[in-house]
């Protein structure tokens, strides 16, 4: 039997080794129990009520009420009943979210979209007390709202420093997904400084922490139990968690909250420029070694940048010594600057770096301008497009002195390959202003082949640059 003992001993040794390895891994994993016990009392459930006065969208169709299942799937998108209809009964709409206490005297942070248009805000504490909350202020651009309840000695949470976060760091969330209070989920930071559409002022924290409807406005914790973010958005195709969650850094949120508490509104720095990313081709066309910075596609003629001497085609590389590594960085740096203060900008203009000092303005509520159509055209074979004249009225509406309208495109031409579209207004080519179709012919004839050159366009009332590369010929 001796020959049987050795294999058995080997398997026992392997099993013991595996158990020891699993135990070591378990010891390395974070334990969130203490964090939850200490932090959970500072997390609140927020419910809002909004009264909507209007027609009843579920009546009609021969006087019969729409079945409940169709209410669920189609909401309020039903047509008026035959023969018209009047105002329906007032309807209460409710929503749920989360929040957290930041001061013992009752200040609470949440998302602006959680309390948007609410007629009543009810905060339920961890000890089951329910308190009416006052909306101190909300900032839609950062999706931050500040509430206050009439209470003292509340369990305020400790706030961390979101600027020190690192990718791969463990984090946890506490909130009320689908109304289930004090639910805890955990994961890691997947990325930092994420830019999302229509959220240029927030460098989002991306995590794989499970976040679902109802978590919005709740805190994101580091392993020290400090709040480092406000859970705000998820990426989803199903309506539920798919592994991508986004939180507002607590440093950004507190800057907004302090202004809301002190002034009732948020002042945000403004340059009055329209910017776009610098692609590799654009970087080459501007003589840059690598793509970086924010390219000014257009300026408000009355804005701070224009008054400070900036021009369309300038590339902003630094703000007060802070690098603008990509275009999305610029709004954050300027937005966090106090209006009325000066900033020193490092620019690239005509292939040379220069410094300009600009006095930052306060963000206005201005809207963009409108675009009209042109009438005449002329074929430019080398570019693969046909252009037309702009009349004085069109130029005035666009706020430009020259330019030609793109009427037609050859799908296989250089202009189409650069992303130029019919209806675009071509303002300059390789830094040369274009005043007419005839002048465009002269500028194109002098363009180099197989090297990208910048083209400035107006599209949908906005200015942008594209990189154009001509083939030989």
Distinctive features:
single chain, alpha+beta, 473 residues, seven-stranded antiparallel beta sheet, 35% strand
Tell me what the structure shows:
- The protein is an alpha+beta fold and 473 residues long.
- The chain is 19% helix and 35% strand.
- It has ten helices and 27 strands.
- The protein has helices at residues 2-28, 33-39, 68-74, 250-263, 280-285, 304-307, 329-335, 392-398, 414-417, 437-445; strands spanning 43-52, 91-101, 107-110, 120-124, 130-139, 144-149, 170-175, 183-196, 199-207, 219-221, 227-234, 245-249, 269-270, 273-277, 294-299, 315-319, 322-323, 342-349, 352-359, 361-362, 378-380, 385-388, 404-409, 425-429, 432-433, 452-459, 462-469.
- The strands form five sheets. Strands 21, 22, 23, 24, 25, 26 and 27 form a seven-stranded antiparallel β-sheet that branches. It has a six-stranded antiparallel barrel with strand order 1-2-3-6-5-4. The chain has a six-stranded antiparallel barrel with strand order 7-8-9-12-11-10.
- A hairpin with a 4-residue loop joins strand 21 and strand 22 (385-388).
- The longest helix has 27 residues, at 2-28.
- The radius of gyration is 29 Å and the shape is globular.
Protein topology:
Layout: H1 2-28, H2 33-39, E1 43-52, H3 68-74, E2 91-101, E3 107-110, E4 120-124, E5 130-139, E6 144-149, E7 170-175, E8 183-196, E9 199-207, E10 219-221, E11 227-234, E12 245-249, H4 250-263, E13 269-270, E14 273-277, H5 280-285, E15 294-299, H6 304-307, E16 315-319, E17 322-323, H7 329-335, E18 342-349, E19 352-359, E20 361-362, E21 378-380, E22 385-388, H8 392-398, E23 404-409, H9 414-417, E24 425-429, E25 432-433, H10 437-445, E26 452-459, E27 462-469
Antiparallel strand pairs: 1-2, 1-4, 2-3, 3-6, 4-5, 5-6, 7-8, 7-10, 8-9, 9-12, 10-11, 11-12, 13-20, 14-15, 15-16, 16-17, 16-18, 18-19, 21-22, 22-23, 23-24, 24-25, 24-26, 26-27
